[in-house]
Amino acid sequence: MIEITGLSKTFGDFVAVHNLNLQVPKGVIFGLLGPNGSGKSTTVKMLTGILQPSAGDALIEGSSILKSPLEIKQKIGVLPEDLALFDSLTIWEHLKLCGPIYGLSRSETDARAEQLLNYLDLWSDRHTFVEQASFGMKKKCGLAMALIHNPKVLFLDEPFEGIDPVASRSIKDLLILMSTRGITILLTSHILEVVERLVSAFAVIVHGEIAVSQTMEETLQAGRSLEEIYFQHVERRAVEDFEWIG
Amino acid sequence: MDRIGAVLQYQWRAYWRRFRRAGTLSTNNLGILVLLGGLFVVRYLQQLPIAASQLAKGETTRYQALLAVVFLAWLFPVLGESRRSITGRGLLHLPFTANDLFLIRVGSAFITPVSWTIVAGSLALCYPVALARHPVTGILALFVFLLLGLFTSLTITHLLNSALARVLILGALVVVSAVAGLLWLENQTEFAATLMSLLPNGLTAAAAMSSTPLSSLAVLAGITAVVAFLALRTFRLTLQPRQNQRSQRFTFLSLIEIPGKFGGLLKKDLRYYSRLLDLYFALPIVLLFNMYLVGDTAPSPIIFFIIVGVLFLPCIALAFNSFGLDRPLGLDRYTLLPLSDQQKLFSKNLAFATIMMVLFVTILPLTFWKLGTRTSLLGLIELIVVWLAYVSCGNWMSVSQPFKMQFYRFASGGSAVDAVMGVIFGSVPAAVTVYLLYNEARASLWKLAALMLIYLAVFMFSLSRSARVLANRREEIRRALW
To answer: Distance from the CA of B291 to the CA of which of B46, B341, B432, B467 falls in 20 to 30 A?
Structure first.
């Protein structure tokens, strides 16, 4: 479960996230949506300990991000926006690096890493150095690292960006399985069709503030789509006539 | 040429933007560094009249030494660059030929103030040559020699992108060190002098002084043409996509598994650390000392204790800037892992210790064989105390003055003054060991053990303080690594 209370982040005069309040119940797949620069990734970074909040707090599985950051890091899995991988390690080495740090034995790490890489279709590429891997491979590597220690809460920043349709489907199936087993998932995405079919609740964040937060059930009962709600809150530019093109 | 000029202009602008971001002359003691650099230049300029008077008398020793200094100095602006924003590969999508890109590469070597200083210092050598027997061929040879220095550094930099070439360069370094060691052990000074005269600085001096100046100039020009061609060819190779290395590339480190919680991080850092060129200055020292231990009938224990301290010097960047090879994304991964800041720093310290142990892996058994158990045990204690001293200082410097380092380049950045202070602090245990053994051989073991306990306490204090700073300065460190 995630409980966010008054979370804010400022960089000098710029307010990236302002007074965010949100609750994500246990076992729910929650979508955090919004345009570029709206504050989604900053929120995820604060929740996962990469950034210190300027104000407010959040409880993840009952632990405060301010008071018990280490305890939280043990419980969560994170796929960051920029993946945070080490250039000169192979995909396999990334997983082998993570396992023992989360307290897994060598054999358990090997077994889980093999299962995850097979599922994500990365097994044959496991000895590829990350600096030479495609973006999709890197993303799947980051995802496997987020999952290997069986986290209670999962934070995924744009998990479907740059992923092929087959892998995207596999990841969706895996996330649904995890949610049925009580794992809470918070994800950000620009791909509204994917999010609509996957999440059970969502919030649209604009200029660092939550514009709307509701469940998919409420949305469907109101006879509306996620896309309609999104564009209701996010401005869209009309197509400009570039005379010099063509 | 306009297009090339435009790229160089933006290259220049990007460099200075990054340079200014470092702050004012007071940041990282930059002002003092400039002052020290200035003093070095003054010292160099003082050598010029001496070289001039020697050349006027037909003696080339000082001139050759100055040429060697200039040649080595040319390696640093290219091999130590960490602020070049626009790379050749980054321009591949623009309508430039490979030769255009090479010209940009050559031009970008002259962006930094260090390069200007080296150019000015190199041109100042015209003064002694003007007094030589053949000033015209001498000055021509000097210009050719300077081009040779630039093209050599470019070729080495390009070659370092290839794993095979790195192995070959390392092999060449080992062979040259071994030959130098053999010549030294066998006292073959005459043969060594003949070899030296065939080196580019010998040929440049010969073009100014010998009876056949034109032939020396022609040989030098020929060598330079070959190296320039190599620089262009190797540059073209750096433009090629590296798809063939994409998968299944095994390294020595990929075959070993390090146990424990930090095993993965340790392995990562060993791979990273082994890619810093500074470290390879230690290899000739290790090789020569091994040859000394094997070849000498009664090697001196004092030299062993000095070598223990000296071998840390090429590796200081690893201790003093332990996050320098991690990109900001790597630092983010450290943040995401459930490790305390103390544990993160300690994993870096362990990696540094492992690198040092690798350097001593042949020396310690040889010392045991040639100098006995007691000396090798004392050396091991000294090694641990010096390590504790360096990491105590290094942890603090790593979090307070981080700077970006690059694979297969020399470390360049940070505060020179603090580095000197760190070296002095780190070398104290080695100096104390040598002093104790020189003056009171019997009691030194216990005194060294006591010294180790003191430094252990200093290390624990430094680890805890630096961890707190790391927690508070994460964003600043991240920015410094861009």
So the answer is: B432
Q: Do B268 and A125 touch (CB under 8 A)?
A: no
The string of pLDDT tens digits covering residues B131-149 is: 888 999 999 999 999 999 9
CB A184, CB A24: distance < 8 Å: yes
Sheet holding A63-64, edge to edge: A14-24, A2-11, A55-60, A63-64
- What is the Cα–Cα distance from B61 to B294, expressed in whole angstroms? 32
Nearest to B246 among A70, A93, A132 (CB): A132
| Pairing between β-strand A209-215 and β-strand A201-206 as defined by DSSP bridges | antiparallel
DSSP string for residues in B3-57: HHHHHHHHHHHHHHHHHHHT-STTGGGHHHHHHHHHHHHHHHHHHHHHHHHHHHT
Superfamily per CATH, domain A2-84+152-233: P-loop containing nucleotide triphosphate hydrolases (3.40.50.300)
Nearest-by-Cβ selection for A93 from B246, B264, B337: B264
Give the model's pLDDT for residue B441. Answer: 61
In this prediction, residue B470 carries a pLDDT of 94
**What is the reported pLDDT for B421?**
87
Give B247's contacts in chain A (Cβ within 8 Å): 125, 127-128, 132
B351 contacts on A by Cβ (under 8 Å)? none
Q: What local confidence, expressed as pLDDT, does residue B443 receive?
A: 65
Mutate to test the interface with B, among A83, A85, A132 (most CBs of B within 10 A): A132
Residues of B in contact with A96 (CB under 8 A): 257, 264
- Cβ distance B324 to B402 under 8 Å? yes
Q: What are the residues of chain A with a beta carbon less than 8 Å away from any beta carbon of chain B?
A: 48-50, 70, 73-74, 78, 80, 82-90, 93, 96-102, 106, 125, 127-129, 132-133
Tokens encoding B477: 């460190």
State how far the Cα of B228 lies from the Cα of B328, in Å rounded to an integer.
36
What's the Rg (C-alpha) of chain B? 24
Which of A88, A102, A105 best probes binding to B when mutated, by most B CB atoms within 10 angstroms?
A88
Contact A100 B326 (CB under 8 A): no
Q: Is the pLDDT of residue A139 over 80?
A: yes
pLDDT confidence of residue A240: 81
- Of B464, B345, B356, B471, nearest to B398 (Cα)? B345
- Give how far A5 is from chain B: nearest CA, Å: 22
| DSSP SS3 for A60 | strand
Count of alpha carbons within 13 angstroms of residue A46, beta-carbon side: 29
Per the rule left: phi > 0, alpha: psi between -120 and 50, beta: everything else, B23 is left
pLDDT tens readout for residues B262-294: 899 999 999 999 999 888 889 889 998 998 898
Average pLDDT estimate for B87-116: 83
Dump strand ranges (E) for A27-152: 29-33, 55-60, 63-64, 76-79
From the list A70, A80, A129, which residue is nearest B338 (CB)? A70
Domain residues of chain A, as ranges? Answer: 2-84+152-233
What is the token pair recorded at B414?
């940070």
Task: Provide mean pLDDT across the span B77-102.
Answer: 75
HSE-up (13 A, CA, CB side) for residue A218: 8
Contact check, Cβ <8 Å, A85/B329: yes
- Chain A contact present for B245, CB below 8 A: yes
B241 pLDDT more than 70 = no
What pLDDT shows up at residue B40? Answer: 78
A153, β-bridge pairs: A76, A184
Considering only CB atoms, which chain B residues are within 8 Å of A87? 327, 330
Kindly provide the ipTM of the predicted complex, given to two decimals: 0.87
For chain B, what is the mean pLDDT? 85
User: CB distance from B248 to chain A under 8 Å?
Assistant: yes
- Answer whether residue B199 shows pLDDT above 90: no
Q: What is the pTM of this model?
A: 0.83
